[in-house]
Amino acid sequence: MKVKVVCRKVYDYIRYDLKEIAFPSSLPDPPHLKKRRKLTWHERFLVLKEASRLYAASWVRDIGPDLRPNDYKKAEETEDNPGGTKTSTNRQKTTEPSVFEDLAVAARGGMETLRPALQRVYMMRASAYRDALKSFIEGYQEGVQQVMEKKEESKAQPGSDTPKKTT
């Protein structure tokens, strides 16, 4: 008799309690919420189709003009120029991606392609800082030379402007 009771308790534990411990059920919904009906297979397919279309469109916006499908390029050309002719600035935009687009494409390629892209970015920034510092130093030196020339000119003309001190 005791073996039967023990077996039943173990069976009930495994059947009810262990399942609830391993895979807990969520709290029940509040009573004021209305339950929605389940979607049919066709409706699920339509939702999946629309979600994948939106997801693909978001990737196309992120990866830049070089990797876009042709239909997106055509849509952009017609938006930019209604006549369909490209201008030189538009051609430059499609052939030369921005730094952000370049890094995004490189990041998708892995560390091997990301490292040279980051090095290019750092080198561009370093050269920009170096050029800015050079131009600042040149301007500063020109300013110092002008001040020194004014001082020499004022010393060359004896005291017409400044009163002489008498002791």
From TrEMBL:
Skewed-composition ranges (Polar residues): 84-97
Protein known as: Embryo defective 2735
Domain of life the protein comes from: Eukaryota
Source species of the chain: Rhizophora mucronata (Asiatic mangrove)
Region listing for Disordered, in residue ranges: 67-99, 146-167
Composition-biased stretches (Basic and acidic residues): 67-76
